[in-house]
Amino acid sequence: MLIKPIKSGIRILFNPEKEFRLLNKRSLEPVVWDYTIVLAASAVMAGIFNLTFSIAKAFYLDLFVDISIQYPRMINYSIGRSASIIFFYLFAGTFLLFFLSLLLRPLFRNINYTSLLKILIYSAMPVLLFGWFLANPLPLAIWSIFLIYTGVKSHKHTKIRKDSIEMRE
Predict the structure, then answer these.
(1) Radius of gyration of the chain (CA)
(2) pTM for the full model?
């Protein structure tokens, strides 16, 4: 269940033009499902990484700098901070992506909203796959902007009948 969406995200990063062409054939639901799985996995990995880093830093300071650390309090604080990072990832991955799609909607009037949302979901993959262990997310944001450009460039506008189930706007 977890391997297929992560492999799909990696394929997006290695060959974005091909994957964005294939995106035109996918419906919104499987794209959102894959995104949700990768978002949840990324949130959990960010929490685990933060907890591990905090404990390792405390051990380092205790051993080499000779600082007295109260480990139960430090672990309690680190678990709380890691849980807040998990919830921030889930919040940012859902609501901030939605607000970004609303802001970009007037710029891309020739693309219907569901296609724009699929492009934004695919473009968020660098941040989801690598954002949990990088201190500076700016290179990942630039990579995501490049993916948005690639997705918009390779988007095929299709005519949808008014009575079709695919008419969602």
Answers:
(1) 20
(2) 0.86
